[in-house]
Amino acid sequence: MTVDLSPVQEYYKDKTIFITGASGFMGKVLLEKLLYSCHSLKEVIIICRPKRGKTPESRLEEMYKLPIFQRIRDERPHMLKKVTIYQGDVTFDLLGLSGDSLKHVTENTNIVFHMAATLKLEGNLRDAIDMNLVGTKRALAVAKQMKHLEAFIHLSTAFCNCDQEVMYEKVYEFPHKPEDLIRLAEWMDVKTLDTITPDLLKPHPNTYTYSKRLAEILVRDHYESMPVIIARPSIVSPAAYEPIPGWVDNMNGPTGLMIGCGKGVIRSVLVNQDYKAEVIPVDYAINGLIVIPYEFNKQAKRPAQVPVYNITNAEHRKMTMGTVVELSKRINRQIPLNAGLWYPDPCVTTNKVYHNINVSLFHWLPAYFLDFLLLLFGQKRFMVRVQEKISTGLGVLQFFTLTAWSFRSELYCSLWNKLNEEDKAIFNMNMHVKETEDDYMVQCALGARKFILKEKEEDLPTARMHMKIQFIVDVVCKTVIVGLFLYYVLKWTGALALF
């Protein structure tokens, strides 16, 4: 039976796609979307390393059991047979491919999505260079051998040029050369490299954005000889519509902050409430990535400069962080999380001194107290260890929440504007939908409960009752603490004797 294909689907017909990082959050959504919507493609090749004693094949089988692959299992189960998996790793030369696997990849691949990276903002420089910079170099080396390569899409980040007031869709120069940093990381010992890292990174806040910036320069330098393209998503948030509204599988970025505050574990955050939140739903980002090779190859003339796409939300859809905070508090009262540690009402401030006082009183002090109780009862202590991770995470996030970001995303917007109505229905990037930001945040909250915390909807009445009790306890404790503080201040100053 002949199936009518849209222009984008027609482009992907009989194509072979190679993906690195397919086991990550965006990678899973990309794989699912390609299999579901570009169903006339020939093959998708992914590489995956063994993990926790599981082979790549068993990890793929586990991935297929995830809720996001449900519609493929129901409607197009045959598409799962179009996926070929090889054991591979971007930290190995030629991505760990050799012999028949390397030959199959280089002789058949048409499109590469290079998404593998370490996202650890607090990670050390050597690991970031090895994964994000040298890993990209290794992926390019394999792509150079591909006989039918039409597009190599390198996934970067919108925040990699943080020294720019306005970030345009172009590659920015940087004093450090990628090859120099690769050599430096190879011969210098870890201890010395860690010592000089703060000076190397400036003006970058972390090794992630620094290594990603260098990787962009490396990719750009291959543009004359290869069809390379750079895609820069902002903070990728849960799915807006597909494959499942609210789908998320990690605690990175806003999801982790939402859960931490909702559980009452995070009591204070450094956020400038006047600045806009820079997030993009994962399905919008993935649809953009899929359309990019089609758009690149339909052009009559190749662009003079390497194409760069800032995959960011439309200006009229961006909320201020203050609005996000207030919405989150309201939604959390409607859809509370189970068994929170404390009433979820974090302090939001830009004052670092005030924040540090709050962290000492409401993060560290309770953590040590609870660990002390666990010690008395002969239980394993964990709260201080959890708090250390939270403290590190909040420390690296504050650069993003205390900085005003400005992105120009004309090329990304043009992807949507150039699609016909059929493709617009399939590869949605519509920024003028009827659903509001409130609706989306409710889906994010429900997604965090369901997919991350595995909490059931029938538990909501109990969670709401628990929150009411927490509110009363919170008010009583704050009243007692403030009362005792005033009492001792008055006593110390001698003012108490006047009453």
Kindly describe this structure.
By secondary structure, the chain is α/β, with parallel strands linked by helices. The protein folds into 2 domains: 8-246 and 276-317 and 405-451, NAD(P)-binding Rossmann-like Domain (Rossmann fold, 3-Layer(aba) Sandwich); 321-402 and 454-498, no CATH class. Helix content is 50%, strand content 9%. It has helices at residues 7-12, 25-37, 56-64, 70-75, 99-108, 125-144, 178-187, 190-201, 207-220, 253-262, 282-298, 321-334, 352-376, 383-401, 410-418, 421-426, 437-452, 460-493; strands at 16-20, 43-48, 83-87, 111-114, 151-155, 228-233, 235-237, 268-270, 279-281, 308-311, 347-349. The chain has a 7-stranded parallel sheet, sandwiched between helices. Helix 2 (25-37) links the parallel strand 1 and strand 2. Helix 6 packs across helix 7 and helix 6 (125-144) runs parallel beside helix 9. It is globular, with a radius of gyration of 25 Å.
Share of helical residues: 40-55%
Question: In this structure, how is the largest beta sheet organized?
Answer: 7 strands, parallel
Distance between the termini: 92 Å
The CATH class name of the largest domain reads: Alpha Beta
Integer average pLDDT: 90
Determine the CATH superfamily of the largest domain: NAD(P)-binding Rossmann-like Domain
